[in-house]
Design goal:
Elements lengths: L8 E7 L6 H10 L7 E6 L5 H7 L5 E3 L5 H10 L5 E5 L3 E3 L3 H11 L5 E6 L8 H16 L2 E3 L6 E5 H6 L11 H11 L4 E11 L5 H20 L4 H4 L7 H19 L4 H18 L1 H11 L1 H26 L4
Parallel strand pairs: 1-2, 1-4, 2-3, 6-9
Antiparallel strand pairs: 4-8, 5-9, 6-8, 7-9
Helix pairs in contact: 8-13, 10-11, 10-13, 12-13
Length: 327
C-alpha cells in the first residue's frame, strides 16, 4: 500500500445509550492509530453512562439535547471537523488495528473514488446461533459484492468530505437506511464507491430472532421499498438486496406459505410445496450456506435455512407493507 499523505481523517461515532459497547469501540479506534483529536463522538441524548465512558478515554463528546437519530448525529459530527476523510463507525463496532492505515491508503491510491466501506469480520462478539448467522450473512453479502458499489455503509465506511457535502450529507428525516440513501445519492451524481471487505470491524450486537425480524422488516425492507418509489429508484434497483438470489428467495417464501395453507385441504400437495420451497431457498442461497458450513459446521449450515426463511419473510412483508401503502 502507498504511504498515505496530505489527507486528514476524522472518525465519527454516533452514540445513543451505548454503555454496553462504547469502551470496546473506542479502544479499537485507538489501537488502530486514531488520536483523540480525530475521534468525534456525538452523544445523541443518552441517558446512561455513554458520556462518562467517553471521557475516561479523554474523548469529549458533542452532546445533543434531544434524541434525533443517527443520521442527524453523524451530520453534527461532520460539522464539527474539517477533516478531508470522514470515517463513520457505529458504536457497536470494533475496527481492526489496520483500519486507519487501510482507509487512508485507499484514498491516497484511488483519487477517483468518493467513498469506501468494509464489512464485519467472521467472529462476532455474541456467541449465539442467530448472532453468528446474522453476522455471517452480512459479511457474505459484502464479500460477494466486493468492488464497485452503488450503496454505502456507516458501520465501517469512509467518504471524501467534498463528495459528502455535494450529496447533501445524511437525510436527517430518514430514520433508517440513511447510509444506503447517501450511497445512492453519490451514485446518481456520478461518484464512485468501493466495497473492500478487507476493511473490517467486529460487531458487538447480540441478535435474537425477534430483533432480526423487526430489523429486516421495519428498518430495512420498508425504508428500502420506499426509496424504490423515489427518484433514487433506478439506482436502488441495482443494489445488492434486489439480486436474482433475493427474488428467488422471495418466491420460495411465498411458495412455502401457500404450502402451509394447502396442508389444510391437500396435505400431500402442501408438503410437496413446502419441501420444494425450502429446496429453492437453499439453492438460491447455496454459496452462503456452503460458507456457513465451512466456518461453523453442518449444524449451523442446516440452521441457516430456516433463519434465511425468517429473513426473507420479513423482507417480503416489508415490501408488501409499502405496496399496500400502510403507514
Amino acid at each position: 500500500m502507498a504511504e498515505p499523505i496530505d489527507l486528514s481523517i476524522a472518525v465519527i461515532v454516533p452514540a445513543h445509550n451505548a454503555k454496553a459497547y462504547l469502551a470496546r469501540c473506542l479502544t479499537g479506534l485507538m489501537a488502530a492509530g486514531f488520536s483523540t483529536d480525530e475521534i468525534v463522538l456525538v452523544d445523541d441524548a443518552s441517558t446512561d453512562r455513554t458520556v462518562e465512558i467517553a471521557r475516561t478515554f479523554n474523548v469529549e463528546p458533542l452532546s445533543i439535547s434531544a434524541n434525533a437519530g443517527a443520521a442527524n448525529a453523524r451530520n453534527v459530527g461532520v460539522r464539527a471537523t474539517k477533516a478531508d476523510i470522514l470515517f463513520f463507525v457505529d458504536a457497536d463496532v470494533v475496527v481492526h488495528p489496520d483500519t486507519r492505515r487501510r482507509v487512508l491508503a485507499f484514498f491516497t491510491e484511488h483519487p477517483q473514488y468518493a467513498a469506501v466501506f468494509g464489512s464485519y469480520d467472521d467472529d462476532p462478539a455474541a456467541n449465539t446461533v442467530v448472532s453468528r448467522f446474522r453476522n455471517l450473512l452480512h459479511r457474505h453479502v459484502h464479500i460477494e459484492g466486493a468492488g464497485k458499489a452503488v450503496t454505502f455503509w456507516t458501520g465501517c465506511g469512509a467518504v471524501r468530505r467534498e463528495a459528502f457535502e455535494r450529496a447533501g450529507g445524511f437525510d436527517a428525516k430518514q430514520a433508517m437506511m440513511e447510509d444506503i440513501k447517501l450511497g445512492l445519492e453519490l451514485t446518481t451524481r456520478g461518484e464512485t464507491i468501493w466495497l473492500d471487505p478487507g476493511i473490517q470491524g467486529k460487531h458487538l450486537k447480540r441478535w435474537t430472532l425477534q430483533s432480526m425480524f423487526r430489523t429486516d422488516m421495519f428498518h430495512r425492507a420498508i425504508p428500502w421499498a420506499r426509496m424504490l418509489q423515489t427518484d433514487l429508484g433506478e439506482a436502488s434497483s441495482y443494489a445488492l438486496n434486489l439480486s436474482l438470489k433475493g427474488r428467488l428467495s422471495g418466491i420460495a417464501v411465498a411458495a412455502s406459505l401457500l404450502g402451509l395453507m394447502a396442508l389444510l385441504i391437500a396435505p400431500a400437495i402442501g408438503a410437496i410445496l413446502i419441501a420444494s420451497a425450502f429446496g429453492l431457498l437453499a439453492y438460491a442461497n447455496g454459496s452462503f450456506i456452503r460458507s456457513v458450513f465451512a466456518e461453523r459446521g453442518v449444524f449451523e449450515a442446516a440452521a441457516a435455512i430456516p433463519l434465511l426463511w425468517v429473513h426473507y419473510l420479513a423482507a417480503c412483508l416489508g415490501y408488501a407493507w409499502v405496496l399496500l401503502r400502510l403507514p
